[in-house]
């Protein structure tokens, strides 16, 4: 059983930055690929981006150039650095590895 815990969410103004963390209960990120997802109010959950166990990343077009995913295997943690945030980035953000999901963390972008 893998436990994933997101942190770092909150309220930020448009144009601001946040860094989300996804902490795992074991050394899983060095073995398996992971993904960051988000679900905005009234919308379906969508993939934001992911990172492979080898460190390769990919992102949905809407966040390319603004979001960055990085792994710290020593801390069993994956980060989602979010810059130039927009109102439409408001959502609950989740991390996922294999079939395991975190509980999610709310990011609100509002003035």
Word description of this protein:
- With 111 residues, this protein is mostly beta strands.
- It contains no helices and 11 strands.
- The protein has strands at residues 4-7, 10-12, 18-24, 34-39, 46-51, 57-59, 67-72, 77-82, 91-97, 100-101, 105-109.
- The chain is globular and about 40 Å long.
- The termini are far apart.
- The mean pLDDT is 96.
Please compute the radius of gyration using only Cα atoms: 13 Å
Order of helical and strand elements: EEEEEEEEEEE
Q: How far apart are the first and last residues' alpha carbons, in Å?
A: 40 Å
How much strand? Answer: over 45%
Helical proportion, percent range: under 10%
List the total number of helices: 0
- Shape estimate: globular
Quantity of strands, as a count: 11
- Structural class by helix and strand composition: mainly beta
Low-confidence stretches: none
| Main beta sheet strand tally, sense and closure | 7 strands, mixed
| Average pLDDT score | 96
Task: Please supply descriptive tags for the structure shown above.
111 residues; mainly beta; globular; seven-stranded mixed β-sheet; four-stranded antiparallel β-sheet
Q: Brief description of this entry?
A:
The chain is mainly beta. The protein is built from no helices and eleven strands.
Helices and strands in order, then pairings?
Layout: E1 4-7, E2 10-12, E3 18-24, E4 34-39, E5 46-51, E6 57-59, E7 67-72, E8 77-82, E9 91-97, E10 100-101, E11 105-109
Parallel strand pairs: 2-11
Antiparallel strand pairs: 1-3, 3-8, 4-5, 4-9, 5-6, 7-8, 9-10, 9-11
